[in-house]
Amino acid sequence: MTRYQSVWRATGPTTAYPPLTTDEGVDVVVVGGGITGLTTALFLQAEGARVALVERDHLCAGTTGGTTGKVTSQHGVIYRELVARHGSRRAGLYAVANQWAVETVADLTQRLAPEASMRAPAYVYTTREEGRADLEEECRTAAKLGLPASLVVGDDLPFSRFPALRFTDQLLIHPVDYGYALAAALVEEGGKIYEGTPAFRVEEGSGEARVRTASGTLTAGHVVVATLLPIVDMGGFFAKSAPVRAYGVAARLHGAAPEGMYISLDSPTRSVRPWGTDGIVVVGESHRTGDDERSHPARWEELEQWSRDNFEVASFEYRWSAQDFSTVDSLPYVGRSPRRRRTYVATGFNKWGLSNGTVAGSILADLIAGRESRWLPAFDATRLPDLAGVRNLVGHNLEVGRELVSGTVARLRAAGPEDLAPGEGGMVSVDGATVGAYRDPDGGLHSVSLTCTHMGCTVRWNQAEASWDCPCHGSRFGPDGSVLAGPAVHPLERRPIDSD
Ligand code: FES
Fold first, then answer.
1. Of 399, 475, 484, 489, best ligand 1 pocket probe by most atoms within 8 Å of the beta carbon
2. 3-class SS letters over 85-116
3. Ligand 1 pocket mutation, candidates 237, 473, 489, criterion most atoms within 8 A of CB
């Protein structure tokens, strides 16, 4: 039977670290226990810093645990665009930094979790004649930037008879095994990890910064906010990034899995990798978070149908989804947070967080140690968007404005709670007020305010994952209003319905 859980979380370790229970002082506090937070913490500790990491949920419970597990400098076809928008120097820095990340993760897995990784080539493929020229041009650009790119044809390539763009010697990992191996190495050398410890605020005072949580305050010289989208935002990152959800399935095959990792040039995007010797992971069907028309189990059905069309599928084992943020100028934001002296951020990885998060760890460790970072010019969190970025920024924020209005209109169309079948959720109207309600499989009704606690947009029901998702900046909440993903740090207000 298919399980609704990321294949990596389901098959990864279940180690638990304790929550914070008292105030503490360290050199650096890292907020967020995904790839970026863990890597940054480990790099800083190697510099001799005393580090504490706090995580709202479990380590790798968020995007890191829901990725494809590809660590590669091949980010679809991105390099032509990066050169055109940012010039060869910055595009080259991005390319070389991400290729450095492949080798760095390979070294770390070799040392800490040898079973958690495997070298493999990465391919972009097309099924259209028109795609051939795009791949040729991308190949020339990527090779010029120093990446191991070539065009290949051959019978062993699945999916297509057209040439594919290959990057040699990339890396596949089990991201949760890897994350927990980083955590174990951190703790072994004296670092602290606190799970189940949501951070609410980051304050800066004279000579120190403080991270406030419900169960204690951590004081440090520096704070790294590695929470996918920063929970403290002095840099307007929520206005410069768009939240996107993607879906994943893991299947067992009759026969052997393909050896490489693959992503389609053509739409709809399909990203594929082997899972063991006889399984595959397929990811795709992305849409903007909070799109209640698309947040539907049909997304997984599309991926499963595609898998059946291309492989001899024996069984589908897992279904899940994950979130990331795309930025208005296609580069991540990493570095010191604008208008802060002791707070650092890393966000906007455009779905390539395993390599970009590793690069972010290097940049942040350099900056906190007082060194220049060679990669910073391509990632600098304080940069202004280019002209095309400004246009995207305006479009994105018009979209947010539209959401504020359309959310109000949607509330007017709400039905009564009696219309909700078990397992269904949505906006309902009760005594002239509109609330969000979910009827659980046993018939119980859970109802909450529809107003997102981040900046007041109207949350939308996600029928695929039984959650309330905010279309503006991607916060997500459970049916009971609890925070599943930031930037919101406070739950949705509960709005009990007297009778149904
Ligand atoms: Fe910003 Fe909801 S996430 S308003």
1. 475
2. HHHHHHHHHHHHHHHHHHHHHHHHHHHHCHHH
3. 473
Per-residue model confidence (pLDDT) at position 206 = 83
457 close to ligand 1 (CB < 6 Angstrom):
yes
Q: What is the per-residue pLDDT for 399?
A: 66
User: What's the first-to-final CA gap in the chain, in angstroms?
Assistant: 33
Distance (Å, whole) CA 172 – CA 108: 13
pLDDT at 500: 45
The three-point CA angle 264-39-41 to 5° equals 155
**Cα 348 → chain centroid:** 8
Instruction: Compute φ and ψ for 110, nearest 5 degrees.
Output: -55, -40
Ligand 1, pocket-test mutation among 240, 323, 455, 476, most atoms within 8 A of CB: 455
Torsion of CA 422, 424, 426, 430, to 10 degrees: -10
112, 182 Cβ separation under 8 angstroms: yes
Residue of minimum CA distance from atom 3 in ligand 1? 473
The helix/strand count (H/E) of the chain reads as 9, 26
What residue ranges of the chain have pLDDT lower than 50?
A: 500
CB–CB of 208/13 below 8 Å?
no
**374 three-state secondary structure:** coil
User: What one-character DSSP code corresponds to residue 207?
Assistant: T
> Is residue 289 within 6 Å of ligand 1 at its C-beta?
no
Q: Of all atoms in ligand 1, which is nearest to the CA of residue 457?
A: 4
- Which single residue is written with the structure tokens 């978070």? 289
Q: Sheet of 476-477: strands edge to edge?
A: 460-462, 467-469, 476-477, 483-485
Ligand 1 pocket member 455 (CB < 6 A): yes
Distance, in Å, from the CA atom of 480 to the CA atom of 132, rounded to the nearest integer, reads: 49
With a 6 Å cutoff on the Cβ, whether 492 touches ligand 1 is no
Q: Which residues lie below 8 Å from residue 293, measured CB to CB, with a gap of 6+? A: none
Q: Reading across the β-sheet that carries 445-448, which strands appear in turn?
A: 425-430, 433-439, 445-448
DSSP string covering 318-369: EEEEEEEEEETTSS-EEEEPTT-SSEEEEE--TT-HHHHHHHHHHHHHHHHT
